[in-house]
Specification:
The protein is 24% helix and 21% strand. The chain is α/β, with parallel strands linked by helices.
Amino acid sequence: MITRRGVLVTFAGLMLSGMATGAYAVGIEPARQPRVKRYSLVPNNWPAGLKLRLVVLADIHACTPWMSPQRIGGICEQANALGGDMVLLLGDYLSGMRIKTGRVAPEDWARELARLSAPLGVHAVMGNHDWLDDTEAMVAGKGPTLVHAALASINVPVYDNRAVRFEKDGRSFWLAGLADQIGPWPGLDDLPATMAQISGEAPVILMAHEPDVFPTVPDRVSLTLSGHTHGGQIRVFGYSPVVPSRFHNRYAYGHIVEDNRNLIVSGGLGTSILPFRLGSPPEIVVVDLG
């Protein structure tokens, strides 16, 4: 028999459960030390004998109290300890919050990113918030942005539709990066022009902040690396109810293989719009190729 007391107890339990979940999603999960998410793969066109470890940081979204310079510095030290041949930064260094937070000046988060080191260097692409949250660049309708200047000050190259050839253990590979696809206006990215810079048979790794470009990436590219989605920031049983992608959950998170082409989407480190993460904890991605 349903009693008034039983209804009240059930209602109170649901309220407390909801409050606890909300407190965890705002106060605990976004502030956790990043987990290390590891992937190991050998793409179809990867040359024998080339082993490469990539350490990937995405979506820092610097702001206080959630992503302070001190926290960014700690994440960089954690990343350095992972032994990457390269460190790749996948964009969205600026806050992106739609609620009031403490501002972190670009020179402050850049000073912490300067801790990053790897034998083959640290390399970056831009994210949509790196344009959208830069008022002067948006008014001017062009860069360089605050983020371009901050990364240049610590000698981190930004790959705006650029490809560079590298060598490890006597074997070559290409690192390419796209300009941002959606902000401040569509069309900054140019995949055909980027691919036109690549010659020979060496494999290609492509950095693209948003994963939506993946259907048009040629099979010449061994691996595409993206961020942007944060895994939806809310992820339950492998499903994200809201994903900032026209493909929705198709490219929300993780290792996706389509037509023998590989995409890895990082869940990222910070938060945007709202400081809320549930079932999608902050992460550093490590990719072992070969």
